[in-house]
Amino acid sequence: xxxxxxxxxxxxxxxxxxxxxxxxxxxxxxxxxxxxxxxxxxxxxxxxxxxxxxxxxxxxxxxxxxxxxxxxxxxxxxxxxxxxxxxxxxxxxxxxxxxxxxxxxxxxxxxxxxxxxxxxxxxxxxxxxxxxxxxxxxxxxxxxxxxxxxxxxxxxxxxxxxx
Length: 163
Ligand code: HEC
What we know:
Elements: H1 2-37, H2 50-63, H3 65-68, H4 103-112, H5 114-118, H6 135-147, H7 151-162
């Protein structure tokens, strides 16, 4: 009389544990995908970190200065569309609006481009650096840019980031 009871119990147990295992595998692969497609890095500009700033200066001169200018002044008439209908490169110094944006915004715009980040259909001349620069190089170039802002602009930018 006892045997069937044990059998039923065992069957249920096997079923429950396989279900549990299956769910665990599905969940694990889901999290794995999340992590590998968007590795968690700390997105934080470091204008006081000398290593980051000097790496950033190199990266900036080689990759950004051609459009945004060696002295971060941007292109001429940057507020008006050019003959082809595109916006010129804006300045990255305090006269532009780079400092109005958070670290996250600046990083993602540089890495993935304006269209992908803002989910906008907006053809533009800002290159996408995902395949060109490492995350550290992108953060370094932006840290260099920030290090060039006057002290009070850097403080205002810090405050915005902490919100
Ligand atoms: C081929 C020219 C070109 C190069 C090279 C370039 N940019 Fe740009 N960038 C642009 C243009 C043009 C815009 C403005 C696009 C628009 O709004 O239509 C822009 C916009 C930006 C913005 C947004 C600024 C804001 O106020 O919204 C950031 C940030 C930026 N660039 C960072 C960089 C960095 C960092 C590099 C180098 C790693 C770089 N850019 C290299 C042309 C360039």
